[in-house]
Write a structure and sequence with these properties.
Length: 370
């Protein structure tokens, strides 16, 4: 191998030489880079090149009829070079690379095998990662299928229960109507005496109360919202969800069965917003909204106040209105509703009375003052 380089450029291509990456001819002392010398980097590191001769010096050796000599003199003294040649700036032909040795080919084969093994390991790792991802994805799909199946079963169960409840309620309502019609028919008969009329009236009153209680039970998941601002083209469902969030109760649209306004349009009602009737999918959501509304004592909305109450039947709503008016006259402090029933109390610590009929009204407040 060559020692220190006395020249800065390659004698073949005249390019700058890299430190220790060149060969020095043992005859002419010219230096050549590895590309011009036709030597690979692996062979250059693996062998000793102290006795290396350049192609020009090899061609000066006595000829022995070797046809593989890189340069041969032709007719007229013209030198014919085999293979690809390079021209130096001075017009001299570049040196033809020397053929690779068996050891260089061996090192090239080893390097190629190592690169192939690395690529094979990378491909195997990627395939293993893909298999793991597929197993995880398959597990997630199976879990999702199980949840969907459970939801289908729950929905089917709820539908069957709802159908049975509706059928039972329809049957009872039909029986009540038949009984009421029978009572009214008997009441209108010509042979009815005074005692029978009074008894029939009591029976009709009892039946009406039972029908009213049934109707009130059907409204246990309903709310009535008053003074909620109304706008043209509004989404009542969205307004209800926004109001619930202001009360601190998270409410999604899927939790609401329906939400609509009832009553005369604002133009016909003097510009006053119509009340909103809401039915929730679960009763405990209605109870949470009522508790939050009682704590807030009316929620401010656009400069006004919004009131949230439980929904009452027409009969109970009229009775509650009469009770409130009477409490205002007699200066009773408390009147409220709970699960469709009306309650009153004169003051703190006083007895609580339940009013469910005009008879209870007379019993608690007495006959009206003349």
């Amino acid at each position: 191998m060559a020692s220190e380089n006395k020249k800065n450029n390659c004698s073949g291509c005249l390019k700058g030489l890299v430190d220790n990456m060149f060969l020095k001819c043992s005859f002419c002392s010219d230096c050549y880079d590895l590309e011009c010398a036709g030597i690979s980097e692996q062979c250059f590191v693996g062998e000793a090149w102290d006795a290396w001769k350049c192609v020009a010096c090899k061609s000066k050796q006595p000829k022995t009829g070797n046809q593989d000599t890189p340069a041969r003199a032709g007719a007229g003294g013209v030198t014919v070079r085999r293979g690809a040649s390079r021209m130096s700036p001075s017009g001299l032909d570049a040196l033809t690379p020397e053929p690779l040795t068996l050891e260089a080919i061996f090192f090239e084969v080893l390097r190629s095998r190592e690169e192939t093994r690395e690529q094979h390991r990378d491909v195997c790792a990627q395939i293993a990662g893909l298999r793991e991802m597929m197993r995880e994805l398959s597990g997630r799909v199976e879990r999702c299928e199980g949840r969907v199946t459970a939801l289908d079963k729950r929905i089917s169960s709820l539908e069957s229960r709802t159908d049975s409840i509706v059928k039972d309620s329809a049957g009872r309502l039909g029986a009540f109507e038949q009984r009421l019609e029978a009572v009214e028919t008997r009441r209108a008969g010509p042979e009815t005496d005074g005692g029978s009329v009074a008894e029939l009236e009591r029976t009709v009153s009892v039946l009406r109360r039972e029908l009213n209680d049934r109707d009130q039970e059907a409204l246990l998941a309903d709310l009535e919202i008053g003074q909620l601002p109304e706008a043209k083209g509004e989404s009542v469902l969205h307004s209800v969800c926004v109001l619930a969030s202001r009360l601190g109760v998270p409410l999604e649209e899927r939790d609401v069965v329906f939400a609509e306004r009832v009553g005369a349009p604002p133009a016909e009602a003097g510009g006053r917003a119509r009340r909103v009737v809401v039915r929730l999918a679960r009763r405990h959501l209605r109870d949470e909204l009522l508790r939050a509304a009682r704590v807030r004592r009316g929620v401010a909305e656009g400069g006004g106040r919004v009131f949230v109450n439980e929904r009452l039947t027409r009969s109970n709503r009229q009775l509650y209105h009469q009770v409130r008016e009477e409490c205002r006259k007699l200066q009773w402090r408390y009147s409220w509703t709970r699960r469709g029933r009306v309650f009153v109390r004169r003051s703190d610590g006083a007895q609580v009375f339940q009013i469910s009929s005009p008879d209870d009204f007379l019993r608690v407040f007495g006959p009206p003052a003349i």
